[in-house]
Structure formats: C-alpha cells, structure tokens
Amino acid sequence: MLVTMRLSALFTVLCLVHPDPAWATARSSASGTSAAAPGRGEAPLNSTHANASVLACSALEGTFPTKLWVPGQANYTAENQHFWSPTDYASPLCVLTPSSASDVSTAVRILSRLKAKFAVRGGGHMPIPGYANINGGVLIALSDLGQLALANDSSYVSVGPGRRWEEVYAYLQPYGLIALGGRVGLVGVPGLLLGGGISFYSNQYGFAADNVIAYQVVLASGAIVTATASAYADLFWALKGGGNSFGIVTRFDLLTYSSPSICAGIMEYAGDQQQPFLAAVANFGQYGSADTKAAVIPSIFMLGALNTTVYTTALFYDTTANCSQPALSNFTALPAIANSYASTTLAAYVAGTDALIGDGTRQEFRVISSLATAAALQVVHDTFVQMVLDHIWDVDGIQASVAFQPVTSHFIQQGIAHGGNPQAVDVASAPYFWMVENFSWNSAADDAKIHAFALNVTSVIDAQLSAVGAKARYQYMNDAGSGQAIFQNYGAGNLAKLKAIRARYDPAKVYTDLMPGGWKVDLA
C-alpha cells in the first residue's frame, strides 16, 4: 500500500508544470551556492535537459524526502566530494543517496520517464571529470549501499557498490581471507570491477572481474536481476570489463581466497639506479612473474617541488613465511634509500597507501600498452622524463610518474578458465607491460595544460613503441584517460557483441544517453 501511495504521488508530481513548493524553496536557497563551472570535458546541460533535471529532483524529493540533497546542505557537499581527487567534483542539481536496490530502481524509472541526465558514483574510482559526477543533473551516490556479508561457507563475500577496497579487506582480514580488488585502499569497488580490475593477486587468479560470481543489477527498465554464469549469462559476461553501459550494479559477489598474511612494501631508489632498475623491471616482465605469487609495480617518480627523479617498486608476495623470495631478488638487491617491504596483511598495506595520494591533489591518467621488452621500457622512460622536464616541470605541485605493470600469460589465461571476458587479451603475445602515466598537481588553473601534455606525451610514446615493434593492442580501461580507445581494442568481435547486449538490456539507451559518464560501448 505504501509503495502504491508513493508511486501515485510521483505520477502526480510528473504531471505538474512547476516543481513542488518544497523543491522550489530548496532550489531558490541553493541558487547562490552552486556556481562552480562545468568540469573539463563536461558541458552544461541545455535548457531541455535542465528543465528535466528540475522536474527529476522534485520528483525524487517527493519519493525520497530523507535521501535527496541540494546545494548548501552538508550531505550534498559530502557526497559531491566523496572522491579521492578533486577533478571529480562537479555541480549536480541534486544528489540522491539510495539505500537499496529498490530505491535505485525507482530512481531510474523516474529519471528515464523524465529523460533527465544523471551520473552514478560508487565508492569513487575514476578521476576523469564527468565520468562519475555531473553538472546540472542528478548524482546518484551509492554511499549507503554498503553491504559486506561473508557467505556461510566463506567462499564468497557480498559487497555493496558504496564500499572502498580498504573497507573490504579490513572486513575479510579477521577470517584470513581476501577478495581480488584494488591495490590502493581508498578507490571504489564498482569502478575497478566494471573495468576489469588488476589486483596484487592477478598473476594467480586473473582480473578482479574474473572472480565475480554474481552481479545484482538494476536494468534500464527498473527491473532488478542477478546475473551469473548461468542466469543472464550474456549480461554477466559483459559486466566483466564492459563498463557501465548495461545497468547499475547494486551488489557484487566476490570469490574469496585464503591469504592471512603477505609480504608487501615499497622500495625507493636514487636516480643513479636508473639502468639497474630498468634491467630488474625487464627481467621480471620476462621471467620473474613465472612465480604467480609475486607481483610488482615499478615506477618512475618525478617530483617537481624537489627537482628530482626517483625510482620505486611496490613489492608483493603472497606468503605467510619468508619475505626473501627469488622472484623479487633483482629489486631487493638494489641499494634503497627507503624500504618498507616486510610481512604484513593486505588490509594493513592498502590502508597505508592512502598517505601516498596527496590530499586534495588533482589527477590525470593515461594508459600505454607494450610488449614486455627492455627496448619498450627504455623508450617510455627516456621520452617521458625528457618531455616532463621540457614542458610541465614548472607546474605548481607537479608529480609525474609512469608505473610499469607486468602482465603474464597466466594472468590472462585465468579469464579464459573463468568463462572468458570482453577484454579477450591476446595470450599468445604475452607478457606485456600495461603502463599508467599519472599526473598530480595543485591548481585547477593548470588542468588544461596538464591534459594537453598528457595527450601529447602519450601520442609520442605510442608512435615510438610502434616504431620499435613493441606496441600492444589492449588498453586497460581503469588506467585510461578520456578519449583513449578502449572497446575498439578488445578481442575480435567483442565490441559488436557488447553492443548487442547493450541493445538487449537497454534498448532506450538510458545508460548511454541519459548517463553520459564513462566509456560507452555504443560510442566506440
């Protein structure tokens, strides 16, 4: 009866020409508090969509009076800034904080009926402006979908999309278990999983998404379904790296694995260790990762404020025993100026990574893929370092880095063993380096300069890699920047298959046209 009464009230609101008085008052009082300009890459809504947004916020407030927030309210600010990078901040007209899949379903029906633009944010993962937030539209913030529940047999954990990875690991730690997820604690769960997801355990078990056994999904129709390998199997496959074109995931069921303790930490080397460092990276890419319990994230770090370049390696080994492992010996043998590699737990390690991300810094990513060769490493190193020094070394607070992520054939084969995924990375050409360029800086005034530079340096490096025969096809979505080709570089025929699945589950393109943020299969 209550549901019927609320829907009746909703349809009454939809028939009104003007928003209800409560919304009009809130909107009027907020008019002076939402003056932020649209973020880079995101245009303001036109008048038609702006009117739809006003009606949508009014309807949502009538339906969810205790879950709808407007500018000037503390909850609006908290949800709008619930990202690890300020480049995600925007000016939504209102923010909805649903607390159940049913709430999300009702909201999607309202937004779809009104043709109102919206964005969805989980725990906060991607720092690209407009990908998980919106100017002038509705932000659906999933913060209150915070489920964490271990199955009775401990074989999987159910995780709500409002969670961050540090929370998942902390929940599982008392049981001596882990789930495959992010290597930095404060990024969100759904963004990582829908893009595939690289974990410290990926050499053993594949993409994080290869280890999802069920997705609870709100479809564009508002229907709530559970996609598994046997039910809605095409949707299940698409969600293992196909992004957000298919629905809003309101629960992930993730396989768990025993890993009560690990060895992990970061070693830092002085700039004069360039050549032995690159040699260690090349060796691990080719041979060291045959030990699937080992993982590394070697990086070049350029620190403008200190006018210096250093080399670092995040080291990981899945063991309860000795941290001195042959697979990591080329890195541990290098003279270090700082070293935190030691026995710990995954939960403790990722909690410590939060301090590595400067509070309030702006962020930009670009992805580069190559074969795992010494020539590729040298090209990327030399070009990146020189271009940073020549073009952006004077930017306030600049930190520029490249992380080299070794990807083995065993990693890729795990996806095949779990029923396949949309990425379908060519296992025959493995191993690879999937590299992420990361730029952080202090002022929004430098956004355009950094973005232009990121485009340019990536283009130059890609061309040089092609010239030495080391360019690889696949581009990892979660490390990519706006405009990079993602789905076009998936396995042969998979883009067409993803488009067909999108058409089956969202024929009206609600999650493409009304929810514009993110990479869309139909636009590839």
UniProtKB/TrEMBL annotation:
Boundaries of every FAD-binding PCMH-type domain copy: 88-259
Signal sequence interval, chain numbering: 1-24
InterPro entries (UniProt xref): FAD-bd_PCMH, FAD-bd_PCMH-like_sf, FAD-bd_PCMH_sub1, FAD-bd_PCMH_sub2, FAD-linked_Oxidoreductase, Oxid_FAD_bind_N
PROSITE patterns tied to this protein: FAD_PCMH
Keywords of the record: FAD, Flavoprotein, Oxidoreductase, Signal
GO molecular-function term, one example from the UniProt record: FAD binding
Similarity remark: Belongs to the oxygen-dependent FAD-linked oxidoreductase family.
PANTHER family in UniProt: BINDING OXIDOREDUCTASE, PUTATIVE (AFU_ORTHOLOGUE AFUA_1G17690)-RELATED (PTHR42973), FAD-BINDING PCMH-TYPE DOMAIN-CONTAINING PROTEIN (PTHR42973:SF54)
Record protein name field: FAD-binding PCMH-type domain-containing protein
Organism expressing this protein natively: Coleophoma cylindrospora
